[in-house]
Amino acid sequence: MATSRPKKYTKNTRNQQIQADMTYRALELLNLPPDEPAFLLDIGCGSGLSGEILDEEGYIWAGVDIAPSMLEVALEREVEGDLFLQDIGQGFGFRPGSFDGAISISVLQWLLNAETSHPTSSPPHRLSRFFTTLHSSLRNPSRAVFQFYPSSDDQIQLITSIAQKAGFGGGIVVDYPNSKKAKKVFLCLYVGGGGGAQQLPEGLDGEEAVEDGGKARFERRREREKTKNGKRKSIKDKDWILKKKELYRKRGKEGVPNDSKFTGPQAEASVLIYFMDLFLFNSSILHSEEVPATGDCVFRLIADEMALQRSHADPLPVLHFFCYNVL
Question: Where are the beta strands (DSSP E) in the chain?
């Protein structure tokens, strides 16, 4: 029952739309190099609604959130990012320069609430700890973009002043300032790259919030088939996978698979054709004591399964095993 409210929130289509629109706008303000992989931090990731947009745009991400119930829903929805249970007011423990950027949707204002009278619970202390450790976690140069709901100009001044003391440049960007419903406030921060000398992006204004047909600015980008649990189906192609693997290699991750003709969403079809051709026209392989050697060492991945299937002439069990356990 503890996760009933988070589940309802996540499944609400209006919440999904609002979260998606603000995430797209945050990415726009983040201004990452096009067609390049990046490792992003989603601050206050919740059940992974923003993370799905990061997936769609081809980014690798990690998310932090203080609510175990929201993270539980994210796990049930099988989000792609790594998840951390974390009170951001206590700061981060990531290695310096871990992330290429950070986004946060509707979270920053919660740091302005003092949980107790203890000095470490005061908003200035929590904000200082948050921004100082975040600055260290971001590479140079990079950006962090926060959409939040300040209740006063004093809150905006407090947040921006503490962020600047932590080493950030940047400031406030306001979209649709004259609209009560569409108005959105973003804190756009810079690490390095000229810092405060960088020019802030312009806020959106006028009638840009609604386009032809009454659709929101980013709504059409979300029109894609969904699975039964509400998660949008993956659109990762071979190029996306290659970029992700290259990013892992640059970051020193071990065990990254080599690129091959079996890389990408078409891998299963390619393997089926490859194996059917091999097995149907040379079924003696199933009864061979030796595993054929190929450049990709494909057969060695299923050597044990082949040994189990040698008593069968039908290659389908082996194909099934490979496609669903190796790919």
Answer: 39-43, 60-65, 82-85, 99-105, 138-148, 169-175, 184-191
